[in-house]
């Protein structure tokens, strides 16, 4: 759904607030997951509000929502590089808490490595909220750890983590993503 209150700062704040409300309202979410959601929203709000308010609003909330879903389902879950080339901007940047990947080719190399280390890698968007300036997706990743990842040999264990991604768009394509996820939980599951 599109959230609108007249100013770009307000749109960003509403977008993030609505995401947090949807996440914390779900039954069965642990305190750890709610804390992760609060931390993610605070981090994204600190990063996204100035960036979103500084850019011209030229986008379409529905197409942004569709691209966010395609990113998770088609690129991460299926490894579809044609979709990546269609929806990622030439100046694409992928930002994690512990590293930044600049460029589509380096990002696609990361996707290929992760898909080798994690069998049946599946990202399921549980909520995607967009306005005319960006999108935020909350998702669940499930897989089986079958290859070396970050120096950790295959554990053959089923894994699942939750995460949140903030999408920035430029010229109708995804130009930047900032991801917060439960890497510590993943390390505990495979370690």
Spatial strand order of the main sheet: 2-1-6-5-4-3
Terminus-to-terminus distance = 39 Å
Shape summary:
globular
Enumerate how many helices there are, as a single number: 6
Number of strands: 6
Give the % helix.
Answer: 40-55%
Largest sheet: 6 strands, mixed
Order of helices and strands: HHHHEEHEEEEH
Tell me the strand percentage band.
Answer: 25-35%
Mean pLDDT: 82
Low-confidence stretches: 1-10, 47-56
> What value does the Rg take, in angstroms?
16 Å
Helix/strand-derived category reads alpha+beta
Output the keywords:
191 residues; alpha+beta; 6-stranded mixed sheet; 6 helices; 6 strands
Commentary on this structure:
- With 191 residues, the protein is of the alpha+beta class.
- Helices cover 46% and strands 31% of the residues.
- The protein is built from six helices and six strands.
- The chain has helices at 8-25, 31-54, 61-77, 81-87, 104-117, 183-190, and strands at 88-95, 100-102, 118-131, 134-145, 158-170, 173-181.
- A six-stranded mixed sheet has the order 2-1-6-5-4-3, sandwiched between helices.
- Residues 1-10 and 47-56 have low confidence and may be disordered.
């Amino acid at each position: 759904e599109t959230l609108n209150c007249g100013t770009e700062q307000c749109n960003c704040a509403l977008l993030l607030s609505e995401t947090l409300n949807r996440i914390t309202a779900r039954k069965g979410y642990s305190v750890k997951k709610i804390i992760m959601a609060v931390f993610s929203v605070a981090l994204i709000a600190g990063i996204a509000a100035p960036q979103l308010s500084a850019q011209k609003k030229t986008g379409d909330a529905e197409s942004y929502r569709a691209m966010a879903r395609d990113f998770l389902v088609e690129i991460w879950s299926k490894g579809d590089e044609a979709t990546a080339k269609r929806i990622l901007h030439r100046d694409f940047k992928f930002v994690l808490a512990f590293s930044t990947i600049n460029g589509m080719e380096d990002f696609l190399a990361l996707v290929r490595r992760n898909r080798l280390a994690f069998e049946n890698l599946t990202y399921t968007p549980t909520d995607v909220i967009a306005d005319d300036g960006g999108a935020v997706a909350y998702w669940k990743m499930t897989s089986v750890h079958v290859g070396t990842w970050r120096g950790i040999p295959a554990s053959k264990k089923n894994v699942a983590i939750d995460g949140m991604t903030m999408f920035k768009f430029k010229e109708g394509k995804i130009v930047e993503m900032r991801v917060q996820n439960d890497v510590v939980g993943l390390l505990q599951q495979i370690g």
